Amino acid sequence: MNFPVTRMRRLRRTEAMRSLVRETHLHPGALIYPLFLCPGEGVRRPIGSMPNVYNLSLDEAVKEAERCAALGLGGLLLFGLPSQKDEEATGAWADDGIVQNALRAFKKNRTLDSLVMMADVCLCEYTSHGHCGVVARDGDHYHVDNDASLALLAKTAASLARAGADIVAPSDMMDGRVAAMREAMDLASLEDVPILSYASKFASAFYGPFREAADSTPQFGDRRSYQMDGANLREAMREIELDIAEGADMLLMKPAMPYLDVIREARQRFDLPMGAYQVSGEYSMLHAAFERGWLEPQRAMMESLLSIRRAGADFIVTYFAKDAAQVLG
Ligand code: PBG
């Protein structure tokens, strides 16, 4: 039936009507807030390239986590800035590492029980060179040694799980890391801790502001030999298939807005729970436009999050998590 019998505008007439026929919804429980933990006490250091995002010492992080729980967020994704960096990323897997210490403190605090504590597993914040794995040098050449990195990544995952992580989330993009982590955790009787694999992670310019927040800029070279080329959707599907075969329990897609087609395709092909990471650059470019008065902050924020849900993500890791939860009431 065509016009005039069919009139699409009938169902758009009032907010009540629009609400009734809305297909996609956002709720605070599907939002995950990233936290950047740093050494010290009483530290709340603003990140220049990310408005309203801070490096937090543990005492401040506890307060922030309590606010997140009160807002009904689904969880936190934890990153650490260690006091020392070295070639072996000791701070990543040390049992008294910065994220391990935070996890133990969070787990003792019952007001945080509603938050799923996710620990990012990667070496880049902890290595002196800023790469996500072990670097082998040969004269002027270097390469990120995949297999040598696996042992350290596996040790990191087990250490974070032992400290209380509810979920470990590998973001390094080494081949075989999911299987290595599953094995290490199972051997340590941590078989109940799920792996959220950043299975589809592209080498992206949109991680720029994060590298300031996490102090993880590579000192030489770039990440293109381990993160995916932005042109490749089929390759992303293979990465996901392999991670599932290795034992991934959940998938994380990243970045989000420039890769909504990849999220959609993954949703159609795979039945695992799937999140998407609205990364630092996505957040900061929206904020830059807000500051200039070029975009309406609340509407643009909600629309960006809705687009990611509509593409097929079950949950969203986003620096807007608290602001969006506030809007959602
Ligand atoms: C660590 C990691 C990065 C991000 C999450 N985990 C940075 C990178 O790969 O360079 C980016 C998150 C963001 O931009 O918000 N490897």
What does this structure look like?
With 329 residues, the chain is α/β, with parallel strands linked by helices. The chain has one domain: TIM Barrel (Alpha-Beta Barrel). It is built from twelve helices and twelve strands. The strands form two sheets. Strands 1, 2, 3, 4, 5, 8, 9, 10, 11 and 12 form a ten-stranded mixed sheet that branches. Strands 6-7 form a two-stranded antiparallel sheet. The chain is globular and about 75 Å long. The two termini are 40 Å apart. It binds ligand PBG. Residues 120, 122, 124, 132, 171, 207, 210-211, 223, 279-280 line the site of ligand PBG. Ligand PBG binds next to helix 7.
What is the number of domains?
1
CATH topology: TIM Barrel
> Largest sheet, if any?
10 strands, mixed
How helical, in percent, are the residues? 25-40%
Quick structural gist:
By secondary structure, this protein is an alpha/beta fold. It is built from twelve helices and twelve strands. Ligand PBG is lined by residues 120, 122, 124, 132, 171, 207, 210-211, 223, 279-280.
Strand and helix layout:
Layout: H1 15-20, E1 31-37, E2 44-47, E3 50-56, H2 58-70, E4 75-80, H3 90-93, H4 98-108, E5 116-121, E6 134-138, E7 141-145, H5 146-163, E8 167-170, H6 177-187, E9 196-201, H7 208-213, H8 233-246, E10 250-254, H9 260-269, E11 274-278, H10 280-291, H11 297-311, E12 315-318, H12 321-328
Parallel strand pairs: 1-3, 1-4, 1-12, 4-5, 5-8, 9-10, 10-11, 11-12
Antiparallel strand pairs: 2-3, 6-7
Helix pairs in contact: 2-4, 4-5, 5-6, 8-9, 9-11
This protein binds ligand PBG.
Ligand PBG is lined by residues 120, 122, 124, 132, 171, 207, 210-211, 223, 279-280.
